[in-house]
Amino acid sequence: MMLSASRKPTHLAIHAPPAHAAFRPRILCASDLSSKSEHAIARALQLCEALAGRALLLHVISNNVPLRLAGRRADRAQDALQWHARQFAHLNVKPELSVRIGPTHATIARAAQSWGADLVVLGLHRERPANELTWSTAERIAHRVRRPVLVINTEAKRDYSAVTFVAGRDTSLGVQLADQYDLFSAAHLSIVPFLPLKERGTLALARWIESRDAARAKELRTSVDRSVQQAIEDAGLHRMGVELIGGHTTPRALMARIRKGKRPQLLVAGLSRNPLRLRSLARLSALSALRTRVCDVLVFPEASARGTLHAPAFTAQSVAGT
Question: Is residue 201 included in any domain, yes or no?
């Protein structure tokens, strides 16, 4: 089901050049130096180049090996990081390099905190399960560092062709974060609206009475659609030409939708520490995307994300004025 705005949507750029010019992000890219993690390094350095930011390339060596062996691995890792940096010598970005020893997610988190990273970029590697950067690693890093984490599953040769937002309680938060890092300058935007408990109950009631009173069930669904539409318009997203994905959306349906599109694509989802939201649509969709590797994934802790925004929050009025 698709919802349409009461006013005709127009594709207006909401990027704010003065804000982007002032915001020079510090982007940490953690790599296991596998061939597949090269995409993460490429995407991180390209973002730094576009936003005039700073980059740190990090490799973590497990602390479960003898110290002498860890030292030899550290020397080889330093050489490998230097080689990767030379592949992007044509960029203005001159990344800092770091090799550390310790547990993967905890060491990445400590490095991000001590360096003051604004964004953490990870590359997945599945051949060695004990060392791979899995969803649980991305989630723990995001919560510990209180910064967004971008997990790269696809090639970084092109800009994203489509970005799908699975909205949380703050409808526009994920959009503003992605915009801050210039992740959808020419992409088709889709959003799965967040449904509060009241609206979810209304839809459940509509399904329950549909066989006995189809007209009343339709009225209930229409009222939910109006509520969702109002939230979208209050956030100013209707003026961006955003496609709204409604109905009973599931992670599997979202993955099928992404597979049909042109690559590369990005899924943006908020995280919550609330145990009651462990099976939220946003979290399960991100988990599904990471397992199937159909797209890149940007996850962020909702509780602290507002404090990471460096550009002014946009509303219906601010978007209309751009």
Answer: no
Q: How far is CA 200 from CA 47, 203, 227, 266, in A?
A: 38, 5, 12, 26
Question: Quick check: is 218 in a domain?
Answer: no
C-alpha 296/C-alpha 13 separation (Å) is 22
For the chain, the first-to-last Cα distance in angstroms comes to 29
CATH number of the structural domain spanning residue 154: 3.40.50.12370
Q: Is the pLDDT of residue 124 over 70?
A: no
Distances, alpha carbon 91 to alpha carbons 50, 78, 218, in Å? 10, 20, 56
118, 147 contact by CB (below 8 A): yes
Q: What is the Cα Rg of the chain in Å?
A: 21
213 located within any domain? no
Note the pLDDT tens digit of each residue in 240-272.
778 888 767 889 999 999 999 888 999 999 988
Instruction: Identify the residue whose tokens are 């009651």.
Output: 276
Nearest CA to 81 out of 61, 65, 96 is that of 96
Q: What is the pLDDT of residue 247?
A: 64
Q: Which helix (H) or strand (E) holds 241?
A: none
Q: Per the structure, how many domains does the chain have?
A: 1
Express each pLDDT in 17-71 by its tens digit: 444 456 899 999 999 988 888 999 999 999 999 999 999 999 999 888 888 888 8
Domain region containing 304: 2-194+229-320
**Model pTM score:** 0.84
For residue 219, the tally of other CB atoms under 10 A from its CB is 12
- Going from the C-alpha of 269 to that of each of 30, 56, 61, 109, 302, the distances in angstroms are 20, 24, 29, 20, 9
Nearest Cα to Cα of residue 129 among 102, 104, 154, 99: 104
Strand ranges (E), 228-264: 243-245
Q: 208 in a domain, yes or no?
A: no
Integer Cα distance of 135 and 109 in angstroms: 15
